[in-house]
């Protein structure tokens, strides 16, 4: 593909090109990979080695025990389990409820459907932070039901569903599925739910994948909302627990670093596996908003 | 027909309830709260504009807004120019494309708390990595987050590192959609690399640049975790709008009315940017 600088120009200035390539490679490695390397190896060092005035590039002696200590003694196991539970539960709720809304709006076309879609899209204008206080009070005492959802998974699951971007992306995708296909299935005797399950969903795999990945990442990375709605330490997510431990207690640095690595592993694994969808979804998001 | 409508609303019931509870109702309630006194003993009662008066009389209100604007301003300079520069560079390189893409986006995938705690350890004025490196090459060391002169700047640095990958990859996608013929035509006309950059690349990216500018303003004005975790909620050098909302509601004051009033001021400012953003992207689509 032709870019700013042509192939001929690059070939003519081969040495300069290679120098720039080398410099950029080193700069990217230092700026983006090295901090992660530092975190992973830092956790392997002893507290004494970490406290030295001159840092070591490679641990003098590898102490993988830090990871086991963090997992057991800092109770990372519990917070990790909590976060997995919140992320997967949230993912299920988002998938089931947002797909149902998008399908109804796209294919069942109810009265006032456009008004509802408009109301949902309007919420994209509301920064989540502006709703923080009233949404917190809603969770603390749900209107009409009068229940308190603080310290329960519902406090993370239900707000995750109210995501207009997911519904918009799903609806746009469903809109592109020809109605003839749905009608043919209906003539064969398939009900609305059956059509959704056997025709629409199998065709929608790519978009379902993107929505799923972003839903899971969103819950895993979130900080301020879980900080507010999960005050009980036993119910906290890994992020909130790490913040609390770093501010209040005397956790040794190597254990804290091990905790940071453990909190990052699922995200990095998801990223390496789903790179293509994540980066593709990002570019699509940039174009569509 | 009625049956179909009932079915459609049955499908939408769960999603609608979530929107009503966590999006539509909180908007109305937030505005109401800003005119109410909330004390958890009695029911909330109306106090007119008392919260706003108290807010405007609190010097922290002005400090928080000033810090937030300074933070957003510096973050724009970095977060806006650096990704554009990186994307152009990445687009011109013919090798290791996959590596550059993964590397630049890796920090975005890390949970924000991991990023700030890691950087806190880099920033440590005692034996943090940054000061060690600075003194090793003979440069003066810094107090980083612990001095009023550098604190906000240090927060911007962390935040930019953690987030610039997103904008970079969006620019990269934009660059790849520029038709190659434009460059060829410019080259035939004798345009140098700089002239091509200025007269082809930048004009072609103009829309995306505007969109990312708005998104960046909206995101950076809601900054919370960096000041909360690195400098605390009481430090007047780095207190931001979100930190002050948190502080009013959940720490010293426990005053939800005051916090709601502060949220309304943020909402009014951000809604203006959001409206422009939505308008732009909507008009681009049709």
TrEMBL record, chain A:
Keywords on record: Cell membrane, Membrane, Sugar transport, Transmembrane, Transmembrane helix, Transport
Matching PANTHER family, A to Z? ABC TRANSPORTER PERMEASE PROTEIN MG189-RELATED, ABC TRANSPORTER PERMEASE PROTEIN MG189-RELATED-RELATED
Gene Ontology CC: one annotated term: plasma membrane
Gene3D superfamilies, per database record: MetI-like
- Domain of life, per UniProt, equals Bacteria
Domain ABC transmembrane type-1: where?
Answer: 80-274
What name is this protein filed under? Multiple sugar transport system permease protein
Source species taxonomy: Bacteria, Bacillati, Actinomycetota, Actinomycetes, Micromonosporales
UniProtKB/TrEMBL annotation, chain B:
Q: Where are the transmembrane segments?
A: 7-25, 69-90, 102-122, 151-173, 205-225, 256-278
Which key words are in the record?
Cell membrane, Membrane, Sugar transport, Transmembrane, Transmembrane helix, Transport
Subcellular location(s) of the protein: Cell membrane
One Gene Ontology BP term is: transmembrane transport
**Record's keyword annotation contains Translocase:** no
PROSITE patterns given in the database record: ABC_TM1
SUPFAM superfamilies according to UniProt: MetI-like
| Bilayer topology annotation | Multi-pass membrane protein
Q: Which residue intervals define the domain ABC transmembrane type-1 in the entry? A: 65-277
Gene3D superfamilies with a match to the protein in the record: MetI-like
Q: Which Pfam families match?
A: BPD_transp_1
- Per the record's keyword annotation, is Secreted included, yes or no? no
Question: What Gene Ontology cellular component terms go with this record?
Answer: plasma membrane
What does the sequence similarity comment in the record state about its family? Belongs to the binding-protein-dependent transport system permease family.
The name this protein goes by in its record? Multiple sugar transport system permease protein
Species of the source? Catenuloplanes atrovinosus
């Amino acid at each position: 593909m032709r870019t700013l600088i042509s192939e001929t120009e690059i070939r003519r200035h081969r040495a300069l090109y290679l120098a720039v390539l080398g410099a950029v490679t080193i700069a990217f490695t230092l700026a983006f990979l090295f901090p992660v390397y530092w975190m992973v190896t830092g956790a392997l060092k002893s507290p004494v080695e970490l406290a030295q005035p001159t840092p070591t590039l490679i641990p003098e002696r590898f102490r993988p025990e830090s990871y086991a200590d963090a997992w057991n003694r800092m109770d990372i196991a519990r917070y990790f389990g909590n976060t997995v539970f919140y992320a997967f539960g949230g993912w299920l709720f988002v998938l089931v409820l947002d797909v149902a809304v998008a399908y109804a709006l796209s294919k069942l076309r109810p009265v006032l459907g456009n008004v509802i879609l408009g109301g949902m899209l309007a919420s994209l204008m509301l920064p989540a932070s502006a709703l923080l206080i009233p949404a917190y009070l809603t969770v603390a005492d749900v209107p009409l039901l009068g229940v308190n959802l603080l310290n329960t998974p519902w406090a993370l699951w239900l707000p995750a569903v109210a995501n207009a971007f997911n519904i918009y992306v799903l609806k746009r995708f469903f809109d592109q599925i020809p109605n003839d296909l749905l009608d043919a299935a209906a003539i064969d005797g398939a009900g609305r739910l059956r059509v959704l399950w056997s025709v629409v969903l199998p065709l929608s795999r790519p978009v379902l994948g993107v929505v799923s990945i972003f839903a899971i990442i969103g819950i895993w990375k979130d900080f301020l909302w879980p900080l507010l709605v999960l005050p009980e330490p036993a119910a906290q997510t890994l992020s909130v627990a790490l913040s609390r431990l770093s501010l209040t207690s005397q956790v040794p640095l190597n254990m804290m670093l091990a905790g940071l690595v453990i909190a990052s592993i699922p995200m990095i694994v998801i990223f390496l596996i789903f790179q293509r969808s994540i980066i593709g979804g990002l570019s699509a998001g940039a174009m569509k908003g | 027909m009625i049956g179909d409508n009932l079915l459609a609303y049955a499908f939408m019931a769960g999603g609608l309830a979530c929107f009503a509870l966590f999006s539509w109702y909180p908007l109305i309630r937030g505005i109401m709260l800003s005119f109410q006194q909330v004390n958890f003993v009695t029911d909330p009662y109306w106090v007119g504009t008392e919260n706003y008066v108290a807010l405007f009389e609190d010097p922290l209100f002005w400090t928080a807004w000033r810090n937030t604007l300074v933070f957003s301003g510096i973050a724009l300079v970095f977060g806006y120019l650096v990704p554009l520069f990186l994307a152009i560079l990445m687009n011109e390189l013919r090798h290791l494309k996959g590596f550059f893409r993964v590397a630049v986006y890796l920090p975005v995938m890390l949970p924000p708390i991991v990023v700030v705690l890691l950087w806190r350890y880099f920033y440590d004025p005692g034996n943090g990595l940054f000061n060690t490196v600075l003194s090793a090459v003979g440069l003066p060391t810094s107090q980083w987050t612990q001095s009023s002169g550098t604190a906000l700047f240090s927060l911007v640095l962390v935040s930019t590192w953690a987030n610039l990958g997103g904008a970079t990859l969006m620019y990269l996608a934009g660059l790849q959609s520029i038709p190659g013929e434009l460059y060829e035509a410019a080259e035939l006309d004798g345009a140098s690399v700089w002239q091509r950059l200025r007269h082809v690349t930048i004009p072609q990216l103009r829309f995306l640049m505007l969109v990312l500018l708005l998104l960046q303003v909206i995101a950076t004005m809601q900054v919370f975790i960096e000041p909360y975790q690195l400098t605390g909620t009481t430090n007047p050098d780095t207190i931001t709008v979100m930190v002050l909302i948190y502080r009013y509601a959940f720490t010293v004051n426990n005053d939800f009315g005051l916090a709601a009033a502060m949220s309304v001021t943020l909402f009014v400012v951000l809604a203006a940017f959001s409206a422009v953003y939505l308008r732009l992207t909507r008009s681009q689509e049709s």
